[in-house]
Amino acid sequence: MVLLTALLIALSLCMDNLAVTVAAGCAARGHVPWRDELKASTAFSVAHLIMLSGGWLLGAGVGKLIHAYAVWVSCGILVWIGAHMMWHGRPGALPEETVRSWDVKSLVYLAVATSIDAWLVGMSLALTQVPFLLMATLMVLFVFITSWIGFYFGAWLGEKFGHRMEMLGGFVLILLGVKLLLEGLGIW
Prior knowledge:
Strand content: under 5%
Number of helices: 8
Distance between the termini: 28 Å
Largest sheet: none
Structural class: mainly alpha
């Protein structure tokens, strides 16, 4: 039963990440170099591991204070990057080469924004019987794999549908940010 719990938690933690990588793949419009996929998938995995570990170490005592701000930070980052993608996804907005470049600052922001929920999960799991090593291993593996798949799928969509997919990807990031905020405020 512990293994099933860890699997389900790891899978749920990588869903935001999957949405973000599909959107990023759409922005690439058909081409994400494997080195960029490796760099991004590793960054997302490491960010999730750091957040899960930090949450696990702090436990539930600090959870309410951090949770109050975490949802606002995640929402702000995702909305800002989503709006940025929509702005640059307009037909004729940027040359193709500029759109395909990988921005390290955006990568870090996205990795943090998609991994804040791992911090909160880590705090709550510190009080359960789920072994940390099992949870961390499954989560890192799932985040890495879904990131890689998300880039491929998003790049295929971007190649097939062009600017519209980048704009849609930006819109999805904005919706994801709003969803996180509504969940954090207890509305959703």
